[in-house]
Amino acid sequence: MSKETATATTVEAGPAPDHLTHGIGASLPTAEAGAKTEGTFPYAADLWAEGLLWAAVLRSPHPHARIVSIDTTHAREMAGVRAVVTHEDVPGAALYGRGTADRPVFASEVVRHHGEPIAAVAADHPDTARMAAAAVIVEYEVLDPVTDPEQAFEADPLHPDGNLIRHIPLRHGDSEAGGEIVVEGLYRIGRQDPAPIGAEAGLAVPRPDGGVELYLASTDPHADRDTAAACYGLEPERVKVVVTGVPGAAADREDQGFQLPLGLLALKTGCPVKFTATREESFLGHVHRHPTLLRYRHHADAEGRLVKVEAQILLDAGAYADTSSDALAAAVSFACGPYVVPNAFIEGWAVRTNNPPSGHVRGEGALQVCAAYEAQMDKLARKLGIDPAELRLRNVMATGDVLPTGQTVTCPAPVAELLEAVRDFPLPPLPKDTPEEEWLLPGGPEGAGEPGAVRRGVGYGVGMVHMLGAEGADEVSTATVKVHDGVATVLCAAVETGQGFTTLARQIVQETLGIEEVHVASVDTDQPTAGPSCRGRHTWVSGGAVERAAKMVRTQLLQPLAHKFGMSTELLQITDGKITSYDGVLSTTVTEAMDGKELWATAQCRPHPTEPLDAEGQGDAFVGLAFCAIRAVVDVDIELGSVRVVELALAQDVGRVLNPAQLTARIEAGVTQGVGAALTENLRTARGLVRHPDLTGYALPTALDAPAIRIVKLVEERDVVAPFGAKAVSAVPVVTSPAAIASAVRAATGRPVNRLPIRPQAAVVTTGQ
């Protein structure tokens, strides 16, 4: 089950405007829902072309080794093989990367992680391609891998750019300040994998002009096009990326380590070339959540009010930088959580190792620190003898407070309201101690010990994330709206990854123009850029661009009527396809007003600029923030260490509900991903080698693992700088739910629980504890 579609939970939300059938506020279904249900929706793995060849990639079996030689002779001589490419066949830029161009298309001298691409093959059958890739002979000089990020500081450089990717020292307030109560903790967060059920796939088709078209499940098509063009030594105009159906995206969706060889093979053979990754290749190729080591010291006064937070945060970036700089900025900036902290001193580092690569995964940086600072809040509450929820309420921030980065929180920040809502929500009933109810116990049927060994715990998590890019990122999107014959069409390169943008675009145009039939065009790089699909960007910037373009078309539509009747366009309204004036004198339909004309407009949306953090971690680095509070209820078998999440009660500030059903699904998906991070998901390695890179060894939560989710409150306090006033909704539940679950396990067992995912031994209570 995909993290985007997992739906085994019971969700309770506030009343939805059931009378709405279109426009903003309606639970409009997605346009592709029918095709996906029937199995006819075209994903990249379904594509076909005449004369198709198949690709395979040879990957390193070692996490660190020097390449002595590469012999492709046997592979090239195999029947059915049409091309073999290595680093020698890259005509353009040999390095690429989403954040920093430091990763080779093919390893040439050194391999730096298990699964790094070395060669690629095109053949007339997928089995032939894989056998030919295996026939490429590579002689390695195996080197000792650096797998402990703490050792990376002293180890020999793993990369020409060194092992340190970024260091952020944050200084805020008085370093000499101290509190009467001090608690410390050391925390470790594991390597969560996006684990898309639809593994990476793509099709490359050569063009008559010497260029190439790439059909990919890309989440950032223009960036992928520019990277590919640079690699191929072509102008960007000669490389086109066409976005196919994306089977959910909880991170950077595509492994560019197969995209780039795919196009090279198509250009070399002159034939269409297709690639479909195995599950092992998927695990080895794409990025993962940063494993993180965190050391914390909290100072508080006798009443439990925070005085100072000190922290050290170390992110394991793996072999290459990717987006680790961005993840570190989020981790350092939110290291104190949504709490008022007058004095904060944070040190953050991101380093290279020979572990699998890390990068953007939903809530990057924020999830790791949330688990740590919430554990610290539990320690403070226990030491002071204060209720954990009450302690948090004494410290929560509100609009007008200042982040440790020096930035004032200008957006709605109803953190106290969210926390009170989940605290006051009725607790679930205890399970009955009868054989018929044994499935309610941790471990499932036959999996639990004696019912008397089960303890229930209640815990809290309060989290925050930033929306859009940060630190000066140019967030911009462009959209075009066309209307003809009573049908509207939206052209925008915002990729639908499951976040619901295409549905939202339809709702915006319906609301603005009163036209019910709205189509959203498929995405390719012939359209202007809309940027990556992450951090709720498209709800804000692309939705804003669609809204502006639709309003421009609305003005074109209404101006002739307003002029004819001697009134301003503001005095006209469009409802259910009818145009009426405030006094009822004018009443006509949109179709009649169009009179066969075609109207169109193009608009951009660019939020207010941000700035990089300075040498002391200060600066207005973020456009907007979102907050969430979760109360977790768990049952723990203290003899076996098994944990069952009984219920997660959630309250969230969403700005404005644009599509109630879609919003509920997004929150549900985010919480389910957080449950995996808390209890089961950890891509394990042994000296840099990925162990069990499959869905048997990597434990995703299933429908039976998903708890009841109670959405007890959605605060609709509109953010005035955001289009529609809405906030991104899916990332902050991912960030918050692992911290809440760990808090509940601490409450049930009295154990410190300082590692995610929670291992059984961490929840076992021995005699005397």
Automatic annotation (TrEMBL):
Positions of region (Disordered): 1-26
Top-level taxonomic group: Bacteria
SMART domains referenced in this protein's UniProt entry, alphabetically: Ald_Xan_dh_C
Positions with biased composition (Polar residues): 1-10
GO molecular function: iron ion binding; oxidoreductase activity
Ranges where the Aldehyde oxidase/xanthine dehydrogenase a/b hammerhead domain occurs: 38-144
Signal peptide start-end: none
Name of this protein: Oxidoreductase
